[in-house]
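Hi team, as promised in this morning's meeting, here are the two structures we talked about. I've kept the exact order from the run log so nobody has to guess. The first one is mostly here for context; it's the second one we should focus on when we meet again. Sequence first, then the predicted structure tokens.
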Amino acid sequence: MSDIALSIPRARAAQSFSATRVLRLIQVTCIFIIALVIVSPLLLLVVASLKDDRFQILADMGSFRAFWVSIPTLSNYAEVGHLSGELAFGRYLINSLIILITTVCSGLIVNSMAGFVLAWGSLRGRAVILSIVIALYVIPQESIIMPLVIMVSRAGMADTFAVQIVPWVASPLYIFLFYQFFSQLPKELLEAAEIDGASFFRAYRSIFLPLSLPALATVSILMGIETWNQYLWPILVTQTDYARPIAVAIATFFGQDSIYWDRAMAASVLMMIPILGLYLAFQRWFVSSFIGSAVKG
């Protein structure tokens, strides 16, 4: 009788353990499938960039051979890495890096200062200004792009680096992100700095800015991705190779009678590397910032 009484809980425990293993197996399988869907285009892109025959790339598409290269070569990268000529993607890549670094560095300074003033400044009507800033964010960029084109053309900024940097330095979204972060820091920090004789700007630069590394990392990555992927605006304001970014240059491959897939793939990999490096450089603070935002709700 006692053996039967003990066997029932054991059977239930075994069933529960088996159900847990099945559930975990389903979870692992789902995660593997999702990861495969996300990674496979990137893997295909890298593998295709190492193939020297554009017709072979097209022939391999739609089969598992698209993910394998028997004789890898870097000749495509050598062809598109020139600084001048028809395939001057090295030049376009440098242009994009100049635009990216200048926009992100300038944006961090301008947006963080604006967010700090809105959070702790003595400016009158801060609540109204903050409401206007938030309202500006909902306006689609495309709706103001044509008036903006006319303005920069009349200002003589067309086909320059400045025209791809200046209009996008200040952003309502990033001002609001910095405002949120600074407003959550203790006000006693600012009061202590003022008692020690520090100016408002000194308190921002020496106390609040060093404490805002997660916010700086988040804005750097988001702003970097937005700047790097700009396509419509550079098309409208650049006419020559002088300041043309690589995103626009890659599109020229697909306007030709014959598409050189091998070179286009190599140029796409080159375009992907800098923004991936930016994310890896700020990954720790970026993740902690998102986790902190989620916890604070």
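And here is the second protein, the one for discussion:
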Amino acid sequence: MTRPDLNSLRLRLILGSVAGVALAMMLAGLFIGHLYRVHTTARFQGELDHHLEELVAMTFVADGTVGVAQPLSDPLFNVPGSGLYWQVEGADTLARSPSLQNNRLAPVVGEAWVERQVADAPVLQRSVRHRSPDGGTLIVSIASARSLLETQVSRFRSDLLRSIAIVGLLLMAGAVLLVRFGFAPVRRLGDEIDRLRHGEIARLPTDAPTEFAPIVTRLNALLEGQAQLIARARTEAGNLAHDLRTPLALISDEAEQLRLRGDVEAGDFLLARCAVMQRQIDHHLARAAIAGTRGGGTLAHVAPLVEQIAGAMRRLHAGRDIRFSIDVPPTLRLPIDEGDLAEILSNLIDNGCKWARSTVAVTIAAGGIAVGDDGPGIAPDRRAAALAIGGRLDPATPGTGLGLAVVADLARIHDARFELGRSPLGGLEARVTLSGPPRL
């Protein structure tokens, strides 16, 4: 199970929103529940006051006995144990509702509602004094079981909890969607940066949201500055190499003069050193040419480039009747500058042609470039020497000894892995594995 990323800003906003909604819903539920109880209690007591006034109006005394002219308007007063009670009490007489059965209210005359017990159940009760037509005093009481009020409050509370839960879930879902919607530009900016890294675009689009526009502008300015620095460095490296070639040519010429004057040993020594210097200059010129090409706009179509290089190699090695086996998806694109890819393929295919007896195999798929041949191959303990600058395992074979070294440098620049191994054809296989995903 994947652990949540607690450093995620989106996760923090979602958790914060959910906690905020839950707290707000809980406080709203408590407030609404309290408000409903207050209003329901007031309405409940108002209805009982109305029945008390109705009871006073219908009370009479005849022959010293108190009575009520007709039943009250609420039929629950006539249902035994219903919870609604009335009672009229005189000096020696008593009348009470059928619902009260044999129980009796203990009157407390006053304006306030008091809580008493009827049949061991709490009731809200209010009593008033009333002067009877014969001049006597009657105590008229009205009461209601508290359970009748609590039942209404409890039903409302259940409905309120369900409603708040539904509203809370909807608000939480809305908060999650809002966070996802708010972070959509961030995801798009990340996708654009990936496209920039893979070479599909040269600069970030400037139609970013207002909050990200300064970041996009500064990143594009940074890319532009880097491109200018790289171009200037490559120009300076080229100028330096050109300036070194002239004195190197003069030293080589002087070495030839020494050999002609009979000092063969000194001439050969100087010529050998000049050759080493020339290879170093060529190598660093090649590095200067390829350095910094990774970045914006570096996405190469592979198949046409391979066919173009293979055609050139067929003409270059026309006398050897080399057969090419090419396996490249026609729509494959690799995240690498096309010039760098051409340099890699040219060096690897040319190296394969030099050593192959009859076949060179070029296979490019899933981010890997493999060029193999059916030549003699290279023993594992000598492969490192083949990658050194100017490393030539067989001086009789034409070449500068820079091809595989240049490929190794290009592989390092593009965070790729370059390996030499044994080809299924029996000879050497040179494999470059790129770090970025291919595009089909």
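Starting points for discussion:
The CA atoms of residues 10 and 179 lie 7 Å apart.
The longest strand covers residues 121-131.
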